[in-house]
Amino acid sequence: MSGYSTYKPQSPFMQWLERRLPIASLIHSSFIAYPTPRNLNYWWTFGGILTFMLGVQIVTGVVLAMHYTPQVDFAFDSVESIMRDVNYGWLLRYIHANGASFFFLAVYIHIARGMYYGSYKEPREVLWILGVILYLLMVVTGFMGYVLPWGQMSFWAATVITNLFSALPGIGDPIVTWLWGGYAVGNPTLNRFYSLHYLLPFIIAGVVVLHIWALHVVGQNNPTGVEPKTEKDTVAFTPYATVKDAFFIGLFCILFAYFIFYIPNYLQHSDNYIPANPGQTPTHIVPEWYYLPFYAILRAIPNKLAGVIALGLAIISLAFLPWLDTSRVRSANYRPAYRVFLLVFFAAVIGLGYLGSQEPTGGYVIAARILTLYYFGFLYVILPLLGLFETTKPLPNSISESVLREGSPAGASAPASGA
Amino acid sequence: MTDITSTSAKGGPASGHGEGTRRDFLYIATAMVGAVGAAATLVPLVDQMNPDASTLAAGGPVDLDVSKIEEGGQVVVRWRQRPIFVFHRSKKTLDTMQSSQMISLLSDPNSEVVQQPPYATNWHRSIKPEYGVLVGICTHLGCIPLFYPDASATTPVSNWLGGYFCPCHGSKYDPAGRVYSGVPAPYNLPVPPYRFVNDTTIRIGENPADSPAWDFSAIRQL
Fold first, then answer.
1. Number of domains, chain B
2. What is the mean pLDDT of residues B45-54?
3. How far is the alpha carbon of B18 from chain A, nearest alpha carbon, in Å?
4. Are residues A221 and A85 both part of a single domain?
5. pLDDT of A405
């Protein structure tokens, strides 16, 4: 992280602090002088958006916890009280509930960007795996948060998801009972989910620090996938990246605010405004939209254990990408065949998401099976083979060359003449 | 620094021959005690999540007067927080359960997987054929299957013969709780331990007096 900084403390106090805790120079070298590739596009702003969203979720979550009661008889009513009685409670809850969706929207774009530009490849494997761990933590945290309002969908989501573990032979049922703390989902379950839902965001924040640390060790990838070679290839993080990130966070927040203020329940299920009833399953259970592709994979496979394994593997497999992809060329811009297969992969994931929201009958199941096959076929067959057979396009010699060639002749698109 | 390491290397008489010194023994013994201590610390941290004694005690037997259930009807009682279906089957339903058409659709028609006590391991999966007693939890992912006792061309699915239908993922069961083939649920609906206290009252959670003590946790899967 150090090495880029030209930071020299000026005031006597900062000099005094620098000798005891060099935090100012750490911040300077990480977020001001840090060199970023000059050709980064707006897809690279989602890391900043995700950090922002984590902050939004933690702040609104801590505040909501001041008004929420994690007890089966009061949980639903306390959420309704937040909505009706607590000053601005409706706003804070709508920010938090829609914030989860926008957090996931941003993370999916962030992951897709990494896959498109080959950001997982050597030397960024650990950075990528930390990202997959962050995504897994988000999935668990989001699920537990969804249980807390204790509506019908909350209760049955908790039942269905914890029952996934019962597929494991032998140890499955004891694990499920242990998760529940009773014979079924009940008060002990709600209480522990609340505790963990409060804890996990801080663990996420800790892993985010590792993620950013790893990023600053290996440096950012860029749309060409060619590493920066000279100072001409990079610009300073501040102001170039900070301003660009801030601008796009602003645009992202406009969309976020539209949902919060105009269609706050668009992404919610009306069934979750019915208090949890352990005696009646809603006629159509669907998870939140951000879990739908994996839910479709689970349902596509007619065997319970195999379905659960496929669900887990669908997520875990992402961590293996650096080794599944055998090509040395990073960016899909220079890999014509990979680009097509990858865009089909993205379409398949979106298609699975749609199928996950539909009733599991007839043609939908068959379609889900085909897309599931493509999902795993892409990761385990196409990716390894493609690197061996694909003819890639010639790479530019450097980032600055690609920028100057693609931009207008006078190099007007260059943000600055070197750092 | 070098002084310290050279001193520790000479810490025991056997040093230099590749054998353990007394200091090595101390290291290993300390590490072992530390590891056992760490493992012992995990026990309360993990076990606190298991059901406590009061929760377990609340899972005691439940009585139900089955004579009050009309023929073709079903009541749902709770035992151990779980819905228990008690179905007063009609003659027609019993015929359906034995029909070759129904049996050909089932995954485990003879109840070979232990999802019921031995005294309910028969074609009707119950003590008396006319009373079915089932844990109403889908063996797929724990939803409560819906009760559609009558044959229907359209509801809940086409060519329905009567039984239970899970709305979550489309699993189907016959009126005895036997699961269809080709649905996500892997096993038949469980039968809880129960006995007739007298001719008309069942006690869910206790085995019959003349049967061996059968433990509900012996079932393959809830």
1. 1
2. 92
3. 38
4. yes
5. 66
Q: What is the DSSP code string of B162-197?
A: SEEE-TTT--EE-TT-PBBTTSS--SPPP---EEES
CB contact under 8 A, B59 and A188: no
Tell me what pLDDT residue A236 has. 93
How confident is the model over A150-199, as pLDDT tens digits?
Answer: 999 999 999 989 988 988 888 888 899 999 999 899 999 999 999 999 99
**Beta strands of A31-145 (E only): which ranges?**
35-37
The pLDDT of residue B102: 92
CB atoms within 10 A of CB A80: 14
Q: Which of B74, B221, B155, B210 is nearest to A308 (CA)?
A: B221
Same domain, A270 and A373: no
Q: Identify whether residues A102 and A66 lie together within a single domain.
A: yes
**Which site among A143, A163, A192, A283 would you substitute to test the B interface, given the most B Cβ atoms closer than 10 Å to its Cβ?**
A163
State the residue range of the domain holding A344: 291-392
Cβ-Cβ contacts under 8 Å, A157 against chain B: none
**Beta-bridge partner residues of B87:** B74, B132
* Residue A388 counted as domain residue: yes
Q: Encoding tokens for residue A404?
A: 């100057």
Residue B7 predicted with pLDDT over 50: no
Which residues make Cβ contacts (< 8 Å) with residue A296, sequence separation at least 6?
A: A352, A353, A355, A356, A368, A371, A372
Phi, psi of B204 (to 5 degrees): -85, 130
Number of domains in chain A: 2
Q: How far is B161 from chain A (nearest CA, A)?
A: 18
Query: Which of A332, A271, A382 minimizes the C-alpha distance to A112?
Result: A332
Look at A186 and B80 and tell me if their CB atoms are within 8 Å. Answer: no
Same domain, A262 and A296: no
pLDDT on residue B213: 81
The rounded distance, in Å, linking the Cα atoms of A287 and A132 is: 21
- The residue ranges of chain A whose pLDDT is under 50 are 1-2, 407-419
**Per-residue pLDDT, A413:** 42
* pLDDT of res. A5: 66
Residue of chain A whose Cα is closest to the Cα of B47: A178
Q: Which residues of B touch A (CB under 8 A)?
A: 46, 49-52, 55, 59, 76, 78, 80-83, 139-144, 146, 157, 166-170, 182-186, 217, 221-222
Are A168 and A208 members of one domain? yes
DSSP A11-59: SHHHHHHHHH-THHHHHHHHHTS-EEETT--GGGGHHHHHHHHHHHHHH
pLDDT tens digits, B26-40: 999 999 999 999 999
Run of H or E residues at A316: helix A304-316
Digit-coded pLDDT (tens) for B150-209: 999 888 888 899 999 988 888 999 999 999 998 888 999 999 999 999 999 999 999 998
Q: Is A371 exposed, middle or buried (0-12, 13-18, 19+ CB in 10 A)?
A: buried
> What DSSP designation does B31 have?
H
Is the pLDDT assigned to residue B13 strictly greater than 70?
no
Could you tell me the strand order of the sheet in which B194-196 lies?
B62-65, B201-204, B194-196
